[in-house]
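Bumping with the actual sequence this time:
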Amino acid sequence: MSRLTFRYGFSSNTISDLTLTRRQPIQGVSTYLTIEIPNQDDISQAQQIELIDLYGNILVKKHIQLNNNESNLLYSTIEKFLPPAHNFFFYIRLSGIDRNGHVFQLSSSTALTSFILLKPVVSLDSNQLQIQSNVLSKLQCHVQSQLPYHVQWSRDEQILSTSDYP
């Protein structure tokens, strides 16, 4: 039997590709945890994940389900959860049944902590902003954000346009 290993990632949506995840959860943001098991021949069933602190105490415990992925076993938590606060370091522990029917537990090799999200930065070049009444004008804003965001333009409380940036 080869050595059991896994990779992981955090995301705001369920995913089918681990490259679409983050290596750390974002503090205060509900997340899914996705586990990828490279050698599916060694695993009969992965059942749950636990986030455990440096002393072995369970901080989060969630059941996982198999996602569709042809090359590797990809499991995700069934529901979103809030990750531990930023000042808590934790390991990911994966539990399940191996191909021989034995219970296994694997832990991540390094401790993690939640990522503190920076506030979005919105800029509008107001130095060049000159609008005359009854004249068509173009306004532009620039947004820098670590999360998906929504832009909405309105005038006199009437929505003119909306855009989502995933």
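The tokens above came from a reply further down the thread. The CA atoms of residues 1 and 132 lie 75 Å apart.
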